[in-house]
Amino acid sequence: MTTSAPDPPPTDAEIRFRRVYEQTYADLLRFVQRRVHPSQAEDVVAETFLVAWRRLDDLPTELDDTRAWLFGTARHTLLNEHRAQGRRAALGVRIAEAAYQSPALAGVDPELVGLRVDLAQAWRRLTPEAQECLALAAWDGLTAPQAAAVLRISPVAFRLRLSRARRALRRYLDLSAPSPSPRTALTEGSTS
Amino acid sequence: MTTTGKPILDPTTDTALRSLDPAGPAADVHGTDAQALLARIVATDPAAGLTSAEAGSAASGRAGDTATADTPRRPMPMRRRLVLAGAAVAGAVAFTIVPGLGGSSPAFAGWTATPSGVQATDLASAAAGCKDYLGRALPPAKPGEDPNMPTAADVFASTPVIAERRGDWTFVLMASAEFEVSCLTSGRSYGNGAIDPARQVSLKPREALVTSVGASTFDSDGYLSVNGLVGSEIIGVTVHADGTDVRATVKSGRFLAWWPEKSLRDKSSPFPSVRLSLTFVDGKSVDLTAEQSAPLSGHGSSRG
Asked: Alpha helices of chain A — where are they, by DSSP H?
C-alpha cells in the first residue's frame, strides 16, 4: 500500500456520486451477477458507474429510480457486449443450482428441496424475456414502474410480460408436478 | 432492496424462487475493490470521453481484459445499438423507452416529414433483412407452452403489409395471423424492432385504431413510431409529437409513421405525447389528443 496526499475537498457532484455509489453498489453488482459470469460482473459495474458519473445530471433524484436507471444502463452495456459478440439480443438470467444452494434450507424442508429443483428446471425453459421479468420482480425486488424503466418499456407492458412469465413458469412447474418428486404434495396443498 | 407487494406465484414458491437467486451475498461497498473503483471514477473528469477499458481497469486492475481479443473496447458512451428485438408486447399500446445514453451527432440526417413509397425490390430486401435480423433474436420455434411469445418462425411467417421510406431509412411493418413485426432499416443496419400481437378488428369507415406506439433505437439514435388501422373513409393521418408534424403513410387500411426523437424524454414523463389528425374522404378532419388515442386503441372509437 502507498500513502497518498490529502484529497482536495470533494465537489458537490462528487459528494452526490459517492452517495449514489454507496447506496447502490451492492445491488448493482448483484443485478449484474445474475446475468453474466462473476468474473465479468465488476467490469460491467465499473462501466455502469462511469456512465453514471459522466451523466450525473441525468440521474433520477429518488434512490429507487436511480437504482433502476443504473440497472437499465448495466443491462444496456450487457446487451452491447452480446451484440458485439454476435450473440442473441435477449438477456437471459441465470438461476442458482438447486442442488448446491442453501444447505440449511435443504436440510429443513424436503418439499422445498423438490420445489427448488423443479423451479430451477422450469426457469431454464423460460424465454430470456420471461426470466428477466421474473428476476426483476423476485430478486431485484423492483416495482413494475422501476422494472419497466430497466427494460425501457412502459409499466403496462411490463405487467403484461410479467403476467405471461408467471403463467409460463407455473405451466412448466405444473408439467413437472406429476413426477414423484416431493413437490407433488406441496403443489396440491399450496396452489390454486 | 425494495419488494413488490404481489406474489410472483404463491408464497411457498416465491420463497423457493428467492432462495435460488444466483447473485452472491451483498458486496461490501467499503471493501477494497469497491473503494478502488470509486476512487478511480471520481478521479476522472466527468466531461471527458473515457474509454471503457479505463473503467474496466478501475474494477479489475487489468485494462480491457474483457474486451474482445481483436478490437479495442469502445469509447464511452456506449452506443445504443439494438436493445431487444424479440419481446412480445401484448395489449393496447406498446412503448419502449429510449435508453439514457444519448448520442450527440445529428440523428437521421435527411429524414423527411413526408414519406415516400418503397420500391418492390427495396421492400423485399428490407423485409428479408429484417426477418433475418429479428429472427435471430428469438427462439427458433414455439417452446410449446407459451403461445403468446413470438418465435423466429412467427417472424418468418410474416409478410409486409405497409412500408415507407424517409431519407435513407425504410420502415416496414410485417404481419402474420398472430403477430405484427415492425422494423427500421437503412439496408446496412437495423433498428430495435417490435413485435405486437395482431389485432383482428373490424373498423367502421371513420374509426381508427392505434395498435402500437413505440420509442426505439437505431444505432445510437432514438426514434419514435406509431402504427395502426384506419377505416375506409380515412385517407390521411398526420402525427404530432415532439413538436414535429409527421405525415403518416396510409395504405390498405393501415397507417404508419416514424420520426427521429428530438431529445431524451423527461424522466417524469418518459413517453411521447402523440396527437393524430385524421383526414376523411370528404375533406373533413379531426384531431385526437393523446388522451383520446388511448380509448382508440382499445375500442376503435368513431370520431368526426
From this structure: 12-33, 38-54, 63-84, 103-108, 110-125, 128-138, 144-151, 155-176, 183-190
